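Write out this protein's structure.
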Amino acid sequence: MGLRLLACLFHLPTAVIYGSLSLFVSILHNVFLLYYVDTFVSVYKIDKLSFWIGETVFLIWNSLNDPLFGWLSDRVFLSTQQAGAEISSPEVVLKRLRALSHNGPLFAISFLSFWVSWAHPGLQFLLCLCMYDSFLTMVDLHHNALLADLAVSAKDRTSLNFYCSLFSAIGSLSVFMSYAVWNKEDFFSFRIFCVLLALCSIVGFTLSTQLLRQRFQADGKAKWDQESTLKELYIEKLSVPQEKRITLAEYLQQLSRHRNFLWFVCVNLIQVFHCHFNSNFFPLFLEHLLSDQISVSTGSFLLGVSYIAPHLNNLYFLSLCRHYGVYAVVQGLFFLKLALSVVMFLAGPDQVYLLCIFIASNRVFTEGTCKLLNLVVTDLVDEDLVLNRRKQAASALLFGMVALVTKPGQTFAPLIGTWLLCEYTGYDIFQRNPLNNVVSAQPKLEPAMALEPTLRQGCFYLLVFVPIACALLQLLSWSQFSLHGKRLQVVKAQRQSLTQGQAPEVKTI
């Protein structure tokens, strides 16, 4: 039975094994997003100053580590391509798989550091965030880079992204299971649950990367034998200098002239901000807009659906991308976000069922758009390679440069959200009894219950005006993005012509 299972694993398609890596990230990362703030604020009792210091340092490190790790990984590829130079090889894929096999288990171990109090809350908050994000960045960079390295055509990349979404949806089930063991007063069951999740992730990363490495090592050996023969036949040509290395400053100058890259990072910065705003304030919206209108089980159902539905919905979005292209689908989602927000604003906060649908759908469509934007980055990798005639597509580095500009949105989301809510209502999440602040700011004759609608109204305005503002800014920026239609076809054709003769792609493995 065990041998039969191993045989089945060895014969799995490459796209399936690649997509399974998303499972071993999502089972941990969804739990992290949902509980890390509540753990430090409600369980470890972190003070407001330490929280802001931790988030500020995290903002800086979170932005810098992506391009730093990307540069360390891909700087050897930043050379000028000459006629006949090699563009890609199995060794590039093997390099990324080795990085995933090392950093995946370390990412799982860093996840565990949040759930045991081992230092002062402020210090632990800072160290845990930076350590966790470092390993998550390494995993994300190389996993996303493989999306550009394994395939060139839009169809093949869509297939890879399909399996990523499918396995991410399965990984989101950890949110449902975590709800059963989450207890602020007794943390033991939740800690055991997190240890089990981390063990599953470690085993999964080790097994998946090993399977992929064995597959590409065979391709790499065949490619090496072929190259050795060619070197013997064309030894005189190879004696001519083939490449010129460029510096980081020169690379940044090239990016500054890459018009589509600049417009894309504007769109993606807003999208990252909106995604994390929804994640951070989803429980708050449920508590103050719907807690007295729906049951606890309905609230937990909405919470779980909001994590699983984006990945399932993304499967449908990817099918639309095959027919209409990524650009048109993303533009349609921006228009849909704007329309739904305007309708919700006109309906008001008293339409309970409409409010439930909007809170869930807002997160579903926003997260779905985030997943699709990775496909746009892979197109930018192609355009960067063609425009600058690189020896090899520096996919991890370009993903890192995108993150340099867009990841600050992760930190801005909770900071701007809590600031707006505090300014409008006086509600401060760091106060042990925050509603007292609201009461004290009003005339003493006014009862406390009469002030609750002010907090409810503030949450409602945050809920509808943030997506309206985001959608308008994104539509404006997205209209300037030109890497679609005929322009994209030309870029794809040029990269395909450059990659002829290289190792088989996903579609032929």
